[in-house]
Design brief:
Number of helices: 28
Shape: flat
Strand content: under 5%
Number of domains: 4
Distance between the termini: 88 Å
Radius of gyration: 35 Å
Number of strands: 7
Structural class: mainly alpha
């Protein structure tokens, strides 16, 4: 073992002062969990490090440069030498981590998160290491959320004097990852090697976490610790006591990126609760202090019965017919409150009943505010905003007849609104989408509901079925195109990667030698294509690939100046055969043998000159200048950190991404809709869907709603767009819930604002 036991013992003793002060010993069942999980992780770690050795060997074989190959071989040797020490350190630190469960309770503050300025100073590679670990932790917590929740509750039951959370649960993925990172500190690896190692941990060990947690939970159950764990229902973020801030438009992009594409909490408030909110807000409206419009009936006399109010709305519907086509199709309907006020004023002038009951007033205001937010939602295409807004009166009639509309997430009207938004999320405002089949289908459904709804939910259910069937057919077509687009992008990425690798191989062979210009240009412009086809068709290590590389080496060797007799004899011997080999291989990259002969013509003439008895005179200064010109005119792959100048490193650091946005880019799932804009204010934007993440090129492929490619962005470029607000995740799931949560947030915010305001001075 490379690292001595003395070194290990010293390190362990040095860390002992960092352990929390122990109170009582661990319960027997927790000791068994510690022992069982430690053995399980120890075995998995042994397999993980063995497979990591093989991984680095394979990566060395596929390396694009000598430096990358050396890095992989050194990483493999380092793991071989210190594998047992890493496992021993991991085992010690992991088991020692359980001691925190018996520590004296403390209220020590959490370590402050690094600032953005500090993060920008971290080298890109070090940040990649943190991102690799964080991605593993996030995915593991997501995959095992139920098992982890139950484990945390059972630990909390055992250790009631200590608040159990992911930061101190020794079985949490973050704590296991921290122990692994600590154990791997003895490995002398480059940052790139560490990133590869930690990513490999996710594939080899983290996939076994569910079984580890299930076993731990079962041991606790067998010991009689909370055999049944009830899952707590989380409160909606907009409920009283947990109200998020109402952000302005400038914060929308950043807020969306931070939330990712998680659906909002389900909106299921009882009408009585909503009515009470409006009752409090109505007082401020009477005093003129309200920051948004509110419908308040001004009439006198007996109030309209619900059936009378519904009939009145039907009359308004008939007097405001919808257009099925043309420019009027995309114009939003008039404001609901204004229509009602005008109609009631006309009734008042005729001496008819015009007052609205208080509870009906509340329904009107809730529905009107909902549609206000629909028309203000910048994530919705204009077409969808207009079409959804034309359902104002039918939806209001539904809510007036059935107050459970607000508390039932399965109500057909709510589901239809969600379906319209989901179907139209990819519509592009820049094109004449009003002529598309999708817009026409949505328009037809909305038109039928507007004209035919009287009572019941049949018309909403019919529209929902029609729209779902149409959307399913469109998605089936787009998925086929999207699949072909993703496959083509992946193939293209593999080809680019291979081209870059071959360019490196050729340029490395030409650097620091005195090869004639004609040979350099032939190797770069002609022979690279031969190598590319050999690699793509037969693979690296195949006989065809080996022959193509050998032919290149022979070509370069024959072009160099040779003075000794042995080399001259070899030159005369291999030149005729070399020309035949060149022609045969070059023909694979050309449309015909004649084309191959034409491409080979000048190099053959040069080689025939080499076969003369007199050596070819070479002007070394001219040769060196020609070589410099050829190599400088050939684009090189992206520089490594070590190869960059100070200015180039400064530019990279300036664009270094904060940790959160790299992680968010990694976590955004395929299938998520995104808005890209040239400026943070959303100007000149396009809508597209994340169709694929290409590992070969570390890039993301975005397509339109038909599945055709719109953009390809490097992962870091996409994260940078998120950071700058030029990319925003579109939240379209549970659209109704999201809008109604905004309604209640606004009402709560208005109440809190008024309560916090200083009292008016006495007059």
């Amino acid at each position: 073992m490379e690292a001595s036991e003395t070194e290990f013992t010293a390190t362990a003793s040095q860390g002992s002062h960092l352990r929390p002060a122990k109170g009582k010993s661990l319960p027997t069942v927790v000791q068994l969990i510690r022992e069982h999980s430690s053995k399980s992780l120890e075995a998995q770690l042994d397999n993980y490090l063995s497979s990591a050795e093989e991984l680095f060997f394979q990566l060395a074989d596929r390396a694009r440069s000598n430096s990358d190959q050396t890095l992989c071989f050194e990483a493999r040797r380092e793991i071989q030498r210190k594998k047992n020490s890493v496992i021993a350190r991991f085992k010690f630190a992991y088991e020692d981590g359980f001691s925190i469960l018996t520590a004296r309770p403390n209220n020590a503050p959490k370590q402050a998160e690094p600032s953005v300025d500090e993060l920008n100073l971290i080298e890109t590679g070090e940040m990649e290491t943190s991102v690799a670990i964080s991605r593993m932790v996030t995915r593991s917590r997501q995959d095992c959320r139920s098992e982890l929740y139950q484990l945390q509750q059972r630990f909390q039951h055992l250790f009631r004097d200590y608040q159990i959370n992911p930061d101190n649960n020794p079985l949490d993925p973050q704590q296991i990852a921290n122990v692994l990172k600590q154990a791997c500190n003895i490995l002398d690896l480059e940052t790139q090697g560490k990133v590869i190692l930690f990513r490999h941990f996710e594939r080899c060990v983290a996939t076994h976490f569910p079984a580890l947690y299930q076993a731990a939970n079962q041991q606790l159950i067998d010991a009689g610790v909370l055999p049944k764990v009830s899952h707590a229902v989380r409160k909606s973020p907009t409920q009283k006591g947990d109200i998020g801030p109402v952000t302005g438009q400038g914060e929308q992009g950043k807020e969306s990126a931070q939330r990712g594409s998680q659906p909002p909490a389900e909106f299921s408030r009882e009408f009585s609760e909503l009515s009470q909110l409006l009752s409090n807000v109505r007082e401020y409206a009477v005093r003129g202090n309200l920051g948004f419009p509110l419908f308040i009936s001004q009439g006198n006399g007996p109030a309209l019965e619900p059936q009378e109010l519904t009939s009145l709305l039907s009359e308004i519907q008939k007097s405001n017919p919808l257009e099925r086509s043309g420019a009027q199709l995309l114009q939003p309907q008039l404001d609901l409150r204004t229509l009602l006020e005008q109609t009631l004023a006309e009734r008042r002038n005729r001496g008819e009943k015009n007052k609205v009951q208080r509870s009906d007033e509340d329904v009107i205001n809730l529905i009107a505010m909902f549609f206000d937010f629909v028309l203000d939602d910048k994530q919705l295409p204009i077409q969808v905003q207009a079409l959804v807004s034309r359902l104002q009166i039918p939806v209001l009639k539904v809510a007036l007849r059935d107050r459970k509309f607000f508390s039932s997430s399965s109500h057909p009207a709510r589901r239809l609104i969600n379906e319209i938004v989901a179907a139209g999320v990819g519509l592009d405002d820049r094109e004449a989408e009003s002529r598309t089949a999708l817009v026409k289908k949505i328009s037809d459904v909305v038109h039928d509901i507007h004209d035919n709804y009287e009572e019941g939910n049949a018309v909403f259910l019919t529209g929902l079925e029609i729209l779902r069937a149409f959307r399913k057919r469109e998605e089936q077509r787009s998925r086929k195109i999207e699949k072909r687009t993703s496959e083509a992008a992946e193939a293209e990425a593999r080809t680019r990667h291979t081209k870059a690798m071959i360019e490196d191989l050729v340029l490395e062979r030409l650097e620091n030698i005195e090869a004639p210009k004609i040979v350099q240009e032939f190797a770069i412009h002609e022979w690279q294509q031969v190598l590319l086809l050999a690699f793509l068709k037969h693979g690296k290590g195949s006989a065809e690939w080996v022959e193509a590389m050998q032919c290149l080496d022979d070509l370069i060797w024959t072009s160099l100046k040779h003075d000794d007799e042995k080399s001259l004899r070899r030159l005369q011997r291999i030149l005729p055969d070399l020309q035949q080999r060149q022609l045969k291989l070059l023909a694979t990259a050309k449309p015909s043998e004649d084309a191959a002969r034409n491409a080979l013509h000048e190099i053959v003439a040069f080689q025939d000159l080499l076969r003369t008895t007199e050596p070819v005179a070479v002007d070394r200064e001219t040769l060196a200048e020609e070589q410099k010109q050829v190599l400088q005119s050939t684009p090189r792959p992206e520089k490594s950190w070590k190869e960059m100048t100070a200015v180039e490193r400064q530019q990279v650091q300036y664009q270094a991404l904060t940790y959160d946005f790299i992680r968010k880019a990694d976590e955004i799932p395929v299938g998520t809709w995104v808005i890209f804009s040239k400026s943070p204010d959303g100007g000149d934007s396009i809508r597209c869907k994340l169709a694929a993440k290409i590992e070969t090129s570390d890039s993301y492929i975005f397509v339109n709603r038909m599945g055709f490619k719109l953009a390809e962005k490097k992962r870091k470029e996409f994260a940078y767009n998120l950071q700058q607000g030029r990319a925003r995740v579109i939240e379209h799931e549970r659209f109704f819930d999201r809008m109604m949560n905004k309604v209640t947030t606004r009402l709560h915010s208005q109440i809190e604002q008024e309560q916090a305001a200083p009292p008016l001075p006495a007059t």
